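Practice problem: Stress up-regulated Nod 19 protein
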Amino acid sequence: MQNCWLLLFATLLLGSTIQASQVLYREENGVKTAVYLSPKFRLGAGSVENKFYHNIDFPKGHIALKEFSAEVVDEEGISVPLHETYLHHWVIMRYYALTTDNGEKELKTISVKNSGVCQNTLGQYFGLGSETRRTDTYVPDPYGIEVGNPADSPDGYVERWYLNVHAIDTRGVVDRLGCTECKCDLYNLTRDEFDRPLRSDYIGGLLCCYDQTQCRLREGFQSIKRNLYLKYTVKWVDWVDTIVPVKIYILDVTDTGERKGVARNSVGLTAQMAGCKVEYEVEPCGVSGECLDIKKTSIVMPKGGYVIYGAAHQHTGGIVSALYGEDGRMICTSRAIYGEGKEAGNEAGYIVGMTTCYPQPGSVKISDGETLVLESNYSSSQRHTGVMGLFYLLIAEQPPNNILLHVQETIKFPMYSWALIFLGLTIAFIAGFSYMRRNERNEGYQSLVA
Ligand SMILES: *[C@@H]1O[C@H](CO)[C@@H](O)[C@H](O)[C@H]1NC(C)=O
Ligand SMILES: *[C@@H]1O[C@H](CO)[C@@H](O)[C@H](O)[C@H]1NC(C)=O
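Answer key — structure tokens:
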């Protein structure tokens, strides 16, 4: 099966100038699967790619998304391991564009964000990072993420999707972890992408690994550029009314809840930026004490519902993250899975997956207005810069009910999908706020990545 895919992949790539393309389509028991390639990007040793591809290939029509995964592959369609190309993140954003605009030139767009409370920094629909290959992302029946409903598009607009890929080539670099953690000295940077000076205490993070930056190479290392793609796989079913819609929430442990004193603008709550920084730092522990960094925050959920899925996003050093209810009950715990070898999907020293939660339908409920506690534990045996503590939730506002049981039979999820799910959701997180930077730069707040 795997070989088949690769063969098809290679055939399509050979001798062609594919920019973005559908590599495979298949349908089984009503579940449709499409595999696409992002536009090609080219990385030399130590270099960084952080691009935005508008109007990407994506399933059309009124559908329920069931699963989303991605990975970096080379020109032969072979999976590229994280120690060669570190996938910092990939993010898929949903938006509306004017029907009259083509994908190259879109004058007016309206983004459609997730339902979380950090929309200005984390507006994406999907996204994961290095953990992409081994993090489950499927949405169990009878649930689905409803998209593409023409009735939801404003007049004169169509729904489209764009992709942000942030990848760091760490072949031949002096400090692999340092380059993936975007340490500013390794990138020889004192100013950001927009030529603004960095804060003197800013040691590392996204401001220091923007598109086309270069991490320090070992003396004499011969850099050979290579062509890469983000291969992304989407599964969906056609929308039917028996599917129960779920909402996507992305929570951030750096969210301090600061919202006050800043006015709403046309786009939304700009004030949210103040509290949702996305990245933080883990200070190294001293000689005494436990080398553990525990970060916690309280987040008020404007609207509640039944938790259908949960997964955290952490970077190297991350151990575990958990979400608790107001009464202290555990909502979901998500642990980092580290690789143990060399091959793609099992790279030693990297987070190659996060464990996920699929509570029994109806068993885990969040109330409207409930204050949740998000906790993110990292090892602090060394300093880490630009780490994250995000939490993804899928929430159904309706309870599961008997009427829905027969749906489970008609859209049964095939077993082989478990294997495919591996390929994972992880990187999308950050693109969201990078995009905001572009579109909302003038709104009077300083974005972390702007
Ligand atoms: C680092 O940046 C400075 C100033 O921009 C430049 O003079 C120097 O050559 C750079 N060093 C390296 C190793 O690229
Ligand atoms: C994080 O570490 C603290 C201290 O050891 C522990 O009490 C807590 O349970 C940990 N969090 C999770 C989610 O395991």
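Discussion: The pocket of 2-acetamido-2-deoxy-beta-D-glucopyranose (ligand 2) is lined by residues 292, 294, 320, 322, 333, 375, 377 (CB under 6 Å). Students who identified this feature from the tokens alone can consider the problem solved.
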